[in-house]
Specification:
The protein is an alpha/beta fold and 282 residues long. The protein has a domain at 93-280: 3-Layer(aba) Sandwich (Rossmann fold). It has helices spanning 15-40, 45-48, 55-58, 62-65, 99-102, 113-121, 149-157, 181-198, 215-218, 220-232, 240-243, 251-254, 263-281, and strands at residues 5-6, 10-11, 93-97, 125-129, 166-170, 203-207, 237-238. It has a five-stranded parallel beta sheet with strand order 4-3-5-6-7, sandwiched between helices. The N and C termini lie far apart (139 Å). Keywords: Hydrolase, Membrane, Transmembrane, Transmembrane helix. Residues 61-82 are annotated as: Disordered.
């Protein structure tokens, strides 16, 4: 297309040319704006919009202000207190039992454990020991003698001149002849209760089988039965078997005949009994 000039030779601009120039101007302005935005870079969001806050981060830490819980100190399981006896002002002692109480096996009867204990304690004492008897076993090959401990207690109580306020019931090994632990347990408890009725206020201690080994181990079942009977009657129990008085190592020097202790054995029983007695009366 040719251009037409006017007014001294300057060229004249047609309408189409004006439209073209206007479009070019608009494009130029748009390009400038895009370039300017590019030079400015993306807006920093963190500068204008606060970052969201986590509820956990905003809340104070539980461990920051609370001291750690100390580890509990291990303590021993409390045990039931042992039964005790209260010594009366004027002790009068009765020791009733089997051949051990009679002093069998010692060179002389008064070298038996019961006599040694009585001499050491210094109380007025009656010692009643009959071989082959027990809480439930009355003595004899067929239990025909009728010398059970309860029967003998009644016989002693028939004499009003002697009133004990301390009673030691020793034995149980002959009750193994019964072969019925429940019967032995019941007889033991009944014997203790009978003594309390005969002599109100009497302090009763049950002293179980105290044979050297290996017989001691054979008496474990009857020992358990006598101990259970004492517990039923709420009476203290001196348990020579569980305490391990006689062992495989020391029994040969204390054994007279495989059943009874010798003189040294009786002295040993007396020593251990007195230790237990002291613990019961403190």
């Amino acid at each position: 297309m040719c251009r037409v000039t006017r007014n001294g030779g300057r060229p004249s601009i047609t309408k189409q040319e004006w439209i073209k120039y206007a479009a070019l101007f608009v494009l130029a302005v748009a390009a400038f704006g895009v370039a300017a935005l590019a030079l400015m870079g993306p807006r920093n969001v963190s500068e204008t919009v606060p970052a969201p806050v986590s509820p956990l981060a905003a809340a104070p830490s539980a461990t920051a202000s609370v001291s750690p819980t100390p580890t509990p100190t291990a303590t021993a399981t409390p045990t039931a207190p042992s039964l005790k006896i209260e010594l009366p002002a004027d002790p009068v002692l009765l020791i009733l039992g089997d051949s051990y109480t009679a002093g069998d096996g010692a060179d002389l009867p008064d070298q038996g454990w019961a006599y040694l204990v009585a001499g050491e304690l210094g109380y007025p004492t009656n010692i009643d020991g009959i071989g082959g008897t027990g809480f439930a076993w009355g003595g004899g090959a067929q239990d025909e003698q009728g010398e059970e401990y309860e029967v003998r207690l009644r016989n002693i109580a028939a004499n009003p001149a002697f009133v004990p306020n301390l009673l030691v019931l020793q034995g149980g090994q002959n009750d193994a002849e019964i072969g019925n632990p429940d019967e032995v347990r019941a007889a033991t408890a009944q014997t203790v209760e009978t003594a309390r009725r005969l002599w109100p206020g009497v302090q009763v201690v049950v002293f179980g089988p105290s044979a050297p080994q290996p017989l001691a181990e054979e008496l474990r079942d009857v020992n358990n039965a006598v101990r259970a009977g004492a517990a039923t009657a709420n009476a203290p129990y001196i348990d020579a078997l569980e305490a391990g008085w006689f062992t495989a190592a020391n029994s040969p020097e204390f054994d007279a005949d495989g059943i009874h202790p010798n003189t040294a054995g009786h002295a040993f029983i007396a020593e251990k009994f007195l230790e237990s007695w002291t613990a019961l009366t403190q």
